[in-house]
Protein: Glucan endo-1,3-beta-D-glucosidase
Amino acid sequence: MAELCFYAITLIFLVTVLNRVHGIGICHGRLGDNLPSPSDAVALYLSNNIASMRIYWPDQNILQALSGSNIQLILDVPRENLQSIASDPSAAHDWVQNNIVAFSGVSFRYIAVGNELIPEHPDLAQFILPAMQNIQGAINAAGLQSQIKVSTAVSGNALGQSYPPSAGAFASDSMGSIVQFLASNEAPLLFNVYPYFAYKGNSAQISLDYALFTSNSPVVHDGPFDYQNLFDAMVDAAYAALEKVGGSNVRIVVSESGWPSAGGFAASVDNARTYNQNLIGHVSQGTPRRPGSGIEAYIFAMFNEDQKNGEETERNFGLFYPNKQPVYPISFT
Structure:
């Protein structure tokens, strides 16, 4: 009996580790005036066995609520801090001390130095690499370099070419030096992947089945690689781009992906549930270019956020309503 208990505990441990490495996290935006308290939000993550979270600025209340939870965290450096951190190593030191070191009970995993700034914000792009370097220096000084990796999050717009996937290439020369930084520090590239927006922008050429993981056969043939879903094609285009600038060993973490449940084109509860449930089931498989290498992915977002700017769909990406009731049934295992 004791031996069976030992093996059962070992199996649970291994499954937990695998889920954390190649599992699903949920992005926790806070752009709403009716959202649950940080402690209630963390409790909802735990009750649903959601192992990872991303937040977009160092909200002290959320960090306090996360302490001791063992939830793995991506923490963003907000764009308003970027220039000062890039120009002053002491500013990076203070940021890391105040937002990382001060919360020793939080399981920090990645620091995202900026979100979707290349090429969307060319005025800020020049500060990304020096800010990453200074944050890395502060992480090293704190002795946390083996625990926390420093990266930046980019969208599909960072690719100047993405079709076919093997032709994937970055649009900006600045990505080359960023990729070299990632490679030298064994850090991943954080990549926001939205088949929804690709489908919305080109529904004449992209089928809904291809976007929702429901195609019954390969849709795109690219040399030795066959693509049955758009998500894989988008991720592999980024892998091809990495390879072209010396980043063959740089891993991709999908730092955002999701589908809106209301508010616009192809936004429905059924489509959102289908996409997100299929994404959860798919990530362990890898992609045609990286078969068998599970993907760490973060769904956007935990809650519908009523104060988000943009089209109505932007306020309907949540898996839960602010009252903590699910928008649709979904399993995170």
Q: What stands out?
A: Residues 53 and 206 are 31 Å apart (CA to CA). Residues 1-21 have pLDDT under 50 and may be disordered. The longest strand covers residues 107-115. The longest helix spans residues 2-21.
